[in-house]
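Budget justification aside, the reviewers requested a transparent look at the raw inputs and outputs of the sequence design task funded under Objective 1. We therefore reproduce one unedited record. The lines immediately below are the structure tokens for a 416-residue chain.
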């Protein structure tokens, strides 16, 4: 079908100036439609990959790759467990933690928060909070001084600043001469951090692990669990599965994909939906290829009949028109590939230029935590999009080419 003769004739038909300029216009439209679809797919998927990567990095800035905890909430043997885990490959950091629910108050302002007790010296090994401090430092948290570090949004809501005292109220009762009262303790604001994620900046407070243990009345020397960081976040699920069978009885582990499973599943579904929707652009352009070839076949009835009388087989005729339609798809895909790569690789430069020209912000920093359009071009996506475009274009040529191969020379030449 694709021997030199059908390929040569199909190429001549593609390059020839047709008497019917409408057919040429539809061919050009088909090519541009495919190019537009491929460009849009590559660019949109790259931007969505960029947002996913940016959000994942911000989430893991405060969330460990693997968390080890116990079903009874109190872990006693954690010192021995840390020594054992530090000898394993891929482990870059381990730190104990204590967590609990609380309310934080300052004057008349009240907010619900998640308090987390940390060891300031070990916490930088498992999180990036030290790098995102706006004021103060986690090293200012000293045992017994009852210092506290707040998220930037939480500090804004409470209207509190460095050095001021806030009150933490935990859901535990204290018996006093005036009756049963909730347990509370005053803390001094020693620092403010800003991760860029609403979940952490507005609902997380950090304490020294010993102060958190006293506030929550935990047995001395116990923690709630261990945070672990690996040198490769993507091996965390397999690492966690292997670790479960080796942990002491009553202990369990889970990785970051489990903790944020719903979020990443939602992103995956959005990418799939966008891929399907934008693929329809390529499909519509492929229908134009069908229209083009149907009209070309009708226009070339006499030529087909002459080729048949000279000995061309139906498969040869079919190959001629499949070559013609496939070339439209190839040129359109190549144009779209160049456009998509150009946009995806330079979108972080193009968008600021457009914003400066129009004097507006596409993603306002007052509304969105990510105010720039990040792009993460992944070659597997490019290969998939390019291959899909070529396959759709090739399939679109089959029916018109088959109709051409069914042309009867006598019928076609009857009125010539």
């Amino acid at each position: 079908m694709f021997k030199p003769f059908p390929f040569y004739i199909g190429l001549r038909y593609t390059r020839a100036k047709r008497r019917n300029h409408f057919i040429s216009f539809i061919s050009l439209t088909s090519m541009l439609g495919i190019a537009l679809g491929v460009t849009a797919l590559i660019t949109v998927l790259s931007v969505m990959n960029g947002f996913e990567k940016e959000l994942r990095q911000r989430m893991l800035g405060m969330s460990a790759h693997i968390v080890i905890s116990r079903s009874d909430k109190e872990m006693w043997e954690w010192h021995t467990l840390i020594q054992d885990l530090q000898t394993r490959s891929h482990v870059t950091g381990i730190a104990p933690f204590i967590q609990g629910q609380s309310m934080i108050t300052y004057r008349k302002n009240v907010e619900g928060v998640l308090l987390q007790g940390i060891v300031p010296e070990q916490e930088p090994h498992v999180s990036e909070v030290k790098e995102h401090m706006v004021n103060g430092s986690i090293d200012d948290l000293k045992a017994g001084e009852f210092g506290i570090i707040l998220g930037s949004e939480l500090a804004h809501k409470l209207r509190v600043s460095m050095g001021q005292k806030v009150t933490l109220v935990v859901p535990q009762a204290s018996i006093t001469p005036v009756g049963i009262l909730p347990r509370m303790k005053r803390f001094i604001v020693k620092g403010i951090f800003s991760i860029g994620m609403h979940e952490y900046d507005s609902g997380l407070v950090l304490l020294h692990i010993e102060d958190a243990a006293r506030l929550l009345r935990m047995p001395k020397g116990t923690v709630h669990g261990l945070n672990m960081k690996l040198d490769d976040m993507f091996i965390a699920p397999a690492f966690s599965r292997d670790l479960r069978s080796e942990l002491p009885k009553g202990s369990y582990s889970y990785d970051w994909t489990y903790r944020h499973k719903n979020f990443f599943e939602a992103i995956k579904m959005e990418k799939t939906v966008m891929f399907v929707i934008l693929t329809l652009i390529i499909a519509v352009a492929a229908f134009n290829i069908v229209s083009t070839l149907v009209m070309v076949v009708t226009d070339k009835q006499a030529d087909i009949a002459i080729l048949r009388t000279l000995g061309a087989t139906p498969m040869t005729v079919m190959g001629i028109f499949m070559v013609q339609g496939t070339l439209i798809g190839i040129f359109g895909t190549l144009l779209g590939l160049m456009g998509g790569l150009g946009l995806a690789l330079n979108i972080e430069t193009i968008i600021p230029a457009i914003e400066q020209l129009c004097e507006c912000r596409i993603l306002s920093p007052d509304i969105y935590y990510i105010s720039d359009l990040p792009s993460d071009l992944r070659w597997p996506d490019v290969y998939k999009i390019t291959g899909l475009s070529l396959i759709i274009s090739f399939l679109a040529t089959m029916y018109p080419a088959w109709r051409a191969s069914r042309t009867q020379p006598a019928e076609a030449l009857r009125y010539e």
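The mean pLDDT is 83. The longest strand covers residues 91-106. Computational costs for records of this kind are itemized in the attached budget.
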